[in-house]
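Incident review: delayed structure delivery

Summary: a single-chain prediction request sat in the queue longer than the usual turnaround. Root cause was a stuck worker, restarted by the on-call engineer. No data loss occurred. The affected request and its eventual output are reproduced below so the record is complete for anyone auditing the incident later.

Affected input:
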Amino acid sequence: MSYDGSMRTSIGVMVVFLALCFMALCFMGMPQEIGPVRALTIDEEVGEVWVLTIDGEIGAGTASYLRQGLAAAEEAGASAVVIVISTPGGMLDAAVAGRDAILDANVLTIAHIDREAFSAGALLAIACERIYFSPGGVIGAATPVYFDQRRMEEAPEKVVSAVRKLFRATAEARGRPPEIAEAMVDRDVEIEGLIERGKLLTLTSLEAEQWGYSDGEVESLDQLLEKEGLAAATVVHFSPGSSIAWSLS
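Output delivered after worker restart:
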């Protein structure tokens, strides 16, 4: 089939007209003012990492601090919470409450042991999804005790048994060898190549890594975040009473 020149001209004019109409319709559907497209930065993709610090004996205030901090971090949409632990231990009921708060958290929890996580502090560390140590860090020595006329005595078998199973259940919840946690509480637990019966277990940083209780040793918070792929995150240091200090990692 052939076309003469006038028909070709008419078709060309119609094509141009339709193209202009299409462009006009597209323009009408767009906002009148279009700003530049903003790409997400690495910081925005990673988000925030909140830091909570447990320094000294664990008491009722510690459990409240953990609950508040974890809840605030979740509400802020934090990528992770780092719990820096340096404690000789503390009250059993406070440790249990703190442990429950960590296990119930809907945000990644990372323990940073700097430098001791004894007794109740060990329970809080084991409750976290990740555990890192500062050089020279230790964890363990968690048998329950009480004071009788100013003398420290080990708790009765009933209490030891309950705490032993509490440690075991916490380790199981995080996929760690449960007998290691039990040996921190009960002298009757023996683990070949690690601890003999009659001794309480305390792990160094190196031992913890060998036996599944450490994700590594770090010199600083920055190094910990780098290992977790969170080096670009905004770091938020939480303090009670909603006082928050901001800094960039």
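Verification: The first helix runs from residue 5 to 28.
Action items: add queue-age alerting; document worker restart procedure.
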